[in-house]
Design brief:
The chain is an alpha+beta fold. It contains 13 helices and 41 strands. A nine-stranded antiparallel beta sheet has the order 24-23-22-21-29-28-27-26-25. An eight-stranded antiparallel barrel has the order 13-14-15-16-17-18-19-20. The chain has a five-stranded antiparallel beta sheet with strand order 2-1-12-11-10, with helices on both faces. The mean pLDDT is 90.
């Protein structure tokens, strides 16, 4: 009997020693990051429904040397999104709303011209296309945290001015805080209570009595921590909280309350708590499965995980849940110099048994390895959501992945398969017109190869001008330097920045990704600007438009276009004067018996200049064609410019002595179709006021 008792005692002692050893190691992880006189941290662990670790270190307030302890309420930032989502899910279960509802059922002034449904579930998992208010305010000239009293009503007002979305709802995942600000307004519409009132009762029902969203930026929150960072200065600085948005973040809570909630989540199945059970899953009917009810659903450390992070100027937090191991690690801090994410991950790696999960790449990875035929590796590739360019470069016989300021070496595993020196498990396979990233979890990302036709001076000139966004009432300029380098300047910024041109469609300037939009005449009419979490903001071009087929007048417009014959064997140029409603006042036709085409019209002091091309007149197949009319459309003169091959006129601008006609000129090696090679070049023709050619200049080749 004594032997048996001694054996049991030995087992208990061994277990306790092992537990104490783990706690000592966890302590060392936390202690290594935070000193007692620095801004603080709180870390808690829940295992099998029981709190197994709880630690507080550092200061909640540096000025008054207040310790960060169990009473301290810290801002957990975006980790709060799960609670806003939980309230929406609760209302859905109670049939107060449907996750399939269009948000405009409740917020009627949003996006009246958007035809697609913007569903509540699109807000929940960031697939709505709604741009992040944080970036919109930054573009507007003052960052969000400098705006005193800025709240969810202000966010709603800002978004009501937005006419379109960054992308079609449900097509991609693109994180945006605005989604969760709007969810609070939907909660208010349905419940008839303010979000603060409703959420306070909701938290009390969860047993979280020391948890609340910010209500007023000057209102006292008992035991509130202050946010600190040195931002590289070597001394602590504090960022005051002067805004009062919530739902997307700004939830002040204690570690005790968070651990109370984590215990409830771990015990949800045992207690049959449908709300908490469903909250840890992906959203029904959603196209995106990696983000659910305010929670990321991606594997971590080689196993199934539910998690989220949060960070806002000194405040930050991290939740990691490993449901199969019934283990949760939560950390929050007011110390901007450390990472709760890295601390929580280090603790998780210490506590979790070594993963037996093997790398499981998408099946197409194995099919693609050692693909037959030649594959091009080097080049430029567009991200799946078209917000960034990746360049695959070769330097000193080594291959590199480069995106903006980040560069990493790639290691060849076969002629078309590579891995990364900093992450060997991440594979890249190159195909004829794309590359695909294959993750060990089975995830894939597809990047399209973009064409790299040279960008000519002609293209750069077409980009120059002023671009305006009326939703934000801001603009930017694109200007050419004397060295023909393109510069970008936002109206709300003091400095201009260089533009990196990837091709004739995509550009980058500092943190702005620019997508060029052209009309049917190949004029640059718009640039879609992506700034971090604000995607595809439309800036319409105001100045220097090329190939202008329409001129506004005092009571309407003058339009020029090309019309075909009934039999389709000829075309003519049609000039019309129209009222503001589009009704025609008068029209004039120009041209001969063959094909005559108009590209643009220029207003002069005494009439109009029509620019196009003709095969009815001139020396060759097509010649540049210019027609001068008076104000009533009567032809004053017409002239052609060119030789035997094809010359096209596209636009014109006034000069001190006449006009500069811009177009293209074709040159060929012979008149025969056999083995003939042709080149097309940018061609400028100077003419006087009567249409007589003064000079011409070939600038550069466009294509073979």
């Amino acid at each position: 009997m004594k032997t048996k008792i001694l054996f049991v005692a030995l087992l208990i002692s061994t277990f306790l020693n092992a537990q104490e050893n783990k706690i000592t190691k966890i302590d060392s992880i936390v202690n290594a990051k935070v000193k007692p006189n620095h801004p603080g941290i709180a870390v808690g662990i829940v295992k099998d429904g029981t709190i197994t670790y709880e630690k507080y270190l550092g200061l909640a307030n540096l000025q008054h040397q207040v310790k960060f302890d169990e009473k301290t309420r810290s801002n957990i930032a975006s980790t709060a999104k799960q609670f806003t989502a939980l309230m929406i899910l609760d209302l859905s279960i109670k049939e107060k709303l449907s996750l399939e509802d269009d948000i405009r059922k409740y917020l009627t002034k949003l996006y009246p011209t958007v035809k697609e449904k913007i569903k509540i579930r699109n807000l929940l998992n960031h697939t709505s296309g709604i741009r992040d208010y944080v970036e919109l305010l930054d573009l507007d000239g003052a960052v969000w945290w400098q705006r005193f009293g800025y709240d969810n009503d202000d966010v709603l007002e800002l978004l009501e001015k937005q006419e379109d979305l960054g992308f079609k709802p449900g097509t991609i995942y693109y994180y945006s805080n605005s989604n969760y600000n709007l969810l609070t307004k939907i909660i208010e519409k349905i419940t008839g209570k303010t979000f603060n009132e409703y959420s306070k009762t909701f938290f009390e029902n969860l047993g979280m009595n020391e948890t609340s969203f910010v209500e007023r930026y000057m209102k006292v929150i008992p035991n509130r921590a202050n946010p600190y960072s040195d931002w590289g200065r070597g001394e602590w600085w504090e960022v005051p909280t002067v805004t009062k948005t919530n739902g997307e973040g700004f939830l002040f809570t204690t570690l005790k309350d968070q651990l109370t909630y984590e215990i409830a989540v771990q015990n949800a199945n045992y207690n049959n708590n449908i709300l908490l059970i469903e909250s840890q899953k992906s959203i029904p009917n959603s196209e995106i499965k990696t983000y659910g009810f305010g929670l990321e659903l991606k594997d971590k450390i080689g196993r199934k995980a539910v998690h989220h992070s949060g960070g806002t100027y000194g405040f930050h937090s991290q939740t990691y849940r490993f449901p199969e191991e019934k283990l949760t690690i939560f950390a929050m801090s007011n110390n901007g110099n450390i990472s709760t994410n890295l601390i929580a991950q280090s603790i998780a790696k210490l506590l979790l048994p070594k993963s037996t999960q093997k790398s499981k790449y998408d099946s197409k990875f194995y099919e693609a390895k050692n693909i037959k035929g030649e594959v091009t590796i080097l080049g430029k590739y567009i991200y799946p959501n078209e917000n960034k360019i990746v360049q695959i470069l070769e330097k000193e016989s080594k291959i590199y992945w480069k995106e903006k300021n980040f560069t990493v070496e790639m290691v060849s595993e076969s002629k078309n398969t590579f891995s990364f020196t900093n992450n060997p498990e991440l594979k890249v396979v190159f195909y004829q017109d794309k590359m695909t990233e294959y993750y060990a979890s089975g995830k894939t990302m597809h990047y399209k190869r973009i064409n790299t036709l040279p960008v000519l001076l002609y293209d750069l000139e077409g980009l120059t001008g002023n671009y305006y966004n009326k939703e934000l009432a801001i603009n930017f300029d694109l200007k050419l330097t004397k060295e023909n380098k393109l510069k970008f300047k936002l109206s709300t910024n003091k400095d201009s920045n260089d533009v990196e041109i990837y091709n004739r469609k995509y550009m980058q300037s500092d943190n702005f990704f620019l997508k060029i939009v052209k009309d049917q005449f190949e004029r640059v009419v718009e640039v879609k600007l992506t700034y971090d979490r604000a995607k595809n903001i439309r800036f319409r071009k105001k100045t220097n438009l090329k190939f202008q087929p329409k001129i506004k007048t005092e009571n309407g417009s003058i339009n020029v276009t090309t019309i075909g014959s009934r039999k389709g064997n000829s075309s003519q140029i049609l000039l019309t004067k129209n009222y503001e409603n589009g009704n025609e006042i008068w029209f004039k036709k120009f041209g001969g018996k063959s094909y005559d085409k108009a590209n643009s019209i220029l207003a002069t002091n005494d009439g109009y200049l029509i620019i196009g091309s003709t095969s009815s007149y001139g020396n060759g197949n097509y010649d540049m064609y210019v027609i001068k009319t008076n104000k009533k459309g009567k032809k004053i003169w017409q002239n052609t410019y060119g030789d035997f091959y094809n010359e096209y006129g596209y636009s014109a601008e006034k000069t001190s002595t006449g006009f500069l006609i811009k177009g293209t000129k074709q040159n060929c090696t012979s008149n025969s179709d056999i083995n003939r090679k042709c080149t097309t070049n940018v061609w400028f023709v100077n003419i006087d006021k009567n249409g007589k050619e003064v000079s011409n200049k070939i600038l550069e080749q466009i294509k073979d």
